[in-house]
Amino acid sequence: MKKPMSxxxxxxxxxxxxxxxxxxxxxxxxxxxxxxxxxxVGHVAAGTEGDVDAAVEAAHRAFPAxxxxxxxxxxxxxxxxxxxxxxxxxxxDARSQLFTREHGKIRRETMLEITRLGDRFRQNAAYxxxxxxxxxxxxxxxxxxxxxxxxxxxxLVVPWNxxxxxxxxxxxxxxxxxxxxxxxxxxxxxxxxTITLHMIAAALPPGVVNIxxxxxxxxxxxxxxxxxxxxxxxxxxxxxxxxxxxxxAENLTPVTLELGGNDPGIVLEDAVLDEAxxxxxxxxxxxxxxxxxxxxxxxxxxxxxxxxxxxxxxxVAARQVVGDGxxxxxxxxxxxxxxxxxxxxxxxxxxxxxxxxxxxFGDVPDQALYEAGYFQRPTFVLNADxxxxxxxxxxxxxxxxIMAFDNEDEVIAAANDSEFGLxxxxxxxxRDRAVKIARQLEAGFTYLNAHGPSVQDxxxxxxxxxxxxxxxxMGYEGVTQFxxxxxxxxxxGWLV
Length: 496
What we know:
Blueprint: E1 10-12, E2 14-16, E3 19-21, E4 28-33, E5 36-45, H1 49-68, H2 71-86, H3 89-103, H4 107-125, H5 128-131, E6 135-137, E7 142-150, E8 153-157, H6 163-167, H7 171-176, E9 180-184, H8 191-202, E10 209-211, H9 216-225, E11 229-235, H10 238-249, E12 255-258, E13 263-267, H11 275-286, E14 296-302, H12 306-318, H13 338-353, E15 357-360, H14 367-372, E16 379-382, H15 389-392, E17 399-405, H16 408-416, E18 420-421, E19 423-427, H17 431-440, E20 445-448, E21 465-466, E22 469-470, H18 475-480, E23 483-491
Helix pairs in contact: 1-9, 2-4, 3-4, 3-8, 9-10, 11-12
């Protein structure tokens, strides 16, 4: 197999108050290719607490003028940003290649993220007219106008798994709502996201969008706990989400937390199981090597269809090619980092040690590459014991436990027996039955006859219950999260 062409390492900077700049102490850190860990992809500016202060203060100064613009004026700027993000095909292609090299995911997925980000800017710009409408409550005894205000400086913390797509669930919403922002990309995927953010920030008034990269341990608390930070929107792990909430609470700063999930899928006895359905099941679980918060992570199948589902989904898995995401034949790249690979392999080995039927699939054309990089073939744990970690915890990798069930009450109880409550799916051609079961699932989003980001309707609010988080991203509700209500009241018959 021929190794893809590699570019020389690049460097990215912070972006504060309308200009790119190095970290105040000139510090940087390195990012390597997870498919080829010896290959240096780039140098990232390692921001300091002083840089955080400069970014938050710049956003605070820019806030009054940005908030004073009409929704239509802000929408026009968002639409220009959307056009800019995809205007230059050669630049988009280069950014996509860089994204694959630093992250590991295949080119089709990096291109999807880049284009989806522009789409989400347009979608949120389209809310302008609706957002401009106040609610009027007529008396007696009073007339009241209920309107909304932007909160101020919003800190947006983006994870490494789908950084641009998740940025699209926060950034355009914050901006159309009237907030200025400071964005903190993940340390593990910072090059292409930072370049993209520089493009966005440079197209807007200085200070409206600011970017600080670096070690979350070093700068995270200063960002989320800064006295001028008025809202925090964080996507990441439960443990870090708890910490973010504690730090923000010192200033009574409101938060939105999207903390992942352990999403169940329920295949009923009447499910349509053709090749397209098996492909949707596979993609729901294994897209981006399973590193998706809304991925299918537990599959419950009616006992009468169990063998059929296992045969169908493993046949799809067997056709996959695991390797470098830059290669056109590759359909699954590596995990993003060694730590996550260790978590996933630990779950797999625990299942094997417990006597579970663990099966791996997929073609590995370059065994040496596979062993050197952070790879794991698509893996299934069949008839998994529900006490195993691979069932109880979020795997965030290419492994799927499949369990049989006998009746609806049993499977609904099993699906809800989790500390998470992000997404779920129901597979049946019976609309009424599908909706009835969906309404009983403890999840913020339920897919019918599909699962995952490729079938996500971005017009609906997205978020979870229980340990999956607080608040919602995306949809109209994802915009109003960045605002606070303001009631204006006067004598009946006079104000409204």
